[in-house]
Design a protein that fits this description.
Number of domains of chain A: 1
Oligomer: homodimer
CATH class of chain A: Mainly Alpha
CATH architecture of chain A: Orthogonal Bundle
Distance between the termini of chain A: 10 Å
Largest interface: A-B, 30 and 30 residues
Strand content of chain A: 5-15%
DNA sequence: GTATTATGTCTAAAAAATAAACTTTGCGAT
DNA sequence: ATCGCAAAGTTTATTTTTTAGACATAATAC
């Protein structure tokens, strides 16, 4: 039997907006909601949902102050988030370098030795 | 105004199964349905749908012979598909290298010269 | 004090992913 | 020969995810 396997892809990071958020925060001390909205070119609704998703995964630390017009939300990446991002990056790099074995080879292994 | 932009991510390729199919076919002359099903570790239903999606995008060439038990489906990547895959790879590489400008800098640009 | 605007959240609609049920037909046992 | 089983795909229905638009809140301008 073949031992071939594709790299594992973290589904939480395999989403355009969530990836942008993480990449941005990984290169900045912190960023607020409004700025993230600008640079990711997303709607506020979508951004809000994805920040919550990432926070619940433990990838982000979110601090909110105020309410209404004066509210301010600041995000920061966590160690866990940073590590997950690096692992995701490595997984994709390996994916792109992947050389998939020929069917013959796999089948040979299947019955072979 | 800031000129900062994240790379564009091709949504057709930004899906785990479709990406696996493309990576596999990019490193093989061709592969049949059954083999793709094995190496991608997917269900036949999902694989069928995604192959059709990629074919309709012009990324794959699919030849089918027979019907029922004796049917045989062989896939091959097209030039267009190969190019799209490389572009996707480059986009992601740039994404990971991305250094997002500070808000201050962006705002400075916003009003600055 | 009323209107307006900025910052977020909630929720409903659209899109996508996935798997389960179905179809077709060759092959083997009886 | 025929009955049932299995293999190869496809279709469709369900679930999940993504997305955006309506809503809420409160500060500021008038």
């Amino acid at each position: 039997m073949s031992t071939f396997k594709f790299p594992v892809i973290n589904p939480l990071l395999h989403n355009e907006l969530r990836l942008k958020i993480m990449v941005a925060l990984d290169s900045l001390e912190s960023a607020d909601f409004v700025y993230l909205c600008q640079i990711t070119d997303s709607t506020r609704g979508n951004l809000s949902v994805q920040i919550t998703t990432l926070k619940e995964a433990g990838y982000l630390e979110v601090s909110k102050s105020g309410l209404g017009r004066f509210s301010h939300t600041v995000c920061r990446i966590t160690r866990k988030g940073h590590d997950a991002l690096k692992a995701y990056e490595q997984g994709l790099r390996r994916m792109f370098e992947q050389r998939v074995p020929d069917k013959d080879i796999v089948e040979a292994k299947k019955y072979g030795q």
